[in-house]
Every structure is written in C-alpha cells, then in structure tokens.
Amino acid sequence: MPNVVKGSKQEKMIVVPHRPRQRFLFTALVLLGVAVSAAGGFSYGYYKTMLAQELEQAGREQLQQNLEASRVENADLRRQIAILERSSQMDQRANAEVQATISGLRQRIAQLEQDIVYYRQVVAEETEDTGLIIGQFDISATSEPRRFRYKLVMRQEDADGDTFLTGHANVNLVGSNDEGQLILPLRDVSEDEDQLDIRLRFKYFQNIEGELALPEGFNPERVQIAAVSVEPVEKNINQNFSWVVEGE
To answer: What pLDDT is stored for residue 166 in this prediction?
Structure first.
C-alpha cells in the first residue's frame, strides 16, 4: 500500500482498462472531422468566391454592353443633330431664296399690271373709232298704231375684208308706264328676235331689223344699245338713241 500521511485528504482512484486502439481510433475520427470541416469550409468559401467573381464579371460585361449601346445611341443622336442642323440651314437658305423669288415675282406682277393698264389705254384710244361701231339706227311708223319698224346697222370700221367680227348686241327700250320706269328687251316686243344677246358675225356690216309692238300704257323714251366684239378686237359699246319715229 502506498504511504499515506495521516490527516491528509485522500483522492479516490479509478481504475480503467487500458485500450490504446480505441484511443487511436477516437483521435483519428476527431482529426478526420476537423479535416472534413476544414475542407468543407474551404470548398464553401471557394464556391462563394467564384460565384462572386462570376457575378462581378457578368455585371462588368453588362455594364460594358450598356456603355457600348449608349455610345452607339449617342453617335446616332449626334448624326441626327448634324442632319437636322444641315437641314435647318438648307431650309433657311431655301426660305430666303423663296422669299426673294416671291418678292421678284410680285415686282414683276406689279410691272405687268402697269403695262396692261397702259396697253389697254393705248388699245382703247386706237380702237375707239375702229372695229365695232353702230352705223345706223332708225325707227319708222307702220300702218298699225303702236307698231313700228326698226333697223340697226352694226359695222366693222377699217375692215380688211378677210377678218370676221364676232360678238353680240343687246337692244332695250327704256320708257315708263303707270307704275314707273320700265325697260323692255327687244325680244319681248318683237317677234323677229328671240334672244337677249343678238349674235354678231360679219366682215363689213350686219343689219338687225324687224317690227316691234309697244305694249298698252308703255311710253318709250329712248333705245339703249350695248354691243360687244370679241374678235378681231375686244371692244364694248354703250349708246342711247332718243325715241324718234320717222314720218311722224
């Protein structure tokens, strides 16, 4: 027995069986667990790192694509701006040219209008006694009361014998009745005329003649003759003849 000092605290001793293989196996399992844990942690960390790198690379590629698209869009917008600026400059030049052309045309039109007025005056002066003229107008009585014969002669002054004068003439009787002034077209009082515009077409002269009957109560005062020639010279005639009956 071991020596024991009297009065000291005595610890109990436990006797266990000596198993070296079990101990080695436990130690190996612990080391294996630690290794597996370390390997798992390393693999997880490596996976997370690679995933982060892949996401970062994908983000960079997306940013690069967005940047390239922005560059392309920016270049396209710059081209459009340049085109619009050139178009605006061209429009401004074209507008200036159009305004200048319009101004020139207006000046030309004003000059032509002045020329037309001048030439009309010259033509009117030259044709006043040429072309279409009224050569004769007569009213004569018949055997019947209020019935008369008329004769109107339209002439072409300075006729060359080759050119036809064309146009028309209107003959109206101006007078009054119980209701006041009254104008009667020749066709309303003469069976020899059925048109308001009496057609004119002749080389030297044309006679317009026939008989007319005055309505009851109508008192004639004058005869109004308006004639227009279209060819060979445009001319208008307006002339009044007093109601004078030959033979009365």
So the answer is: 95
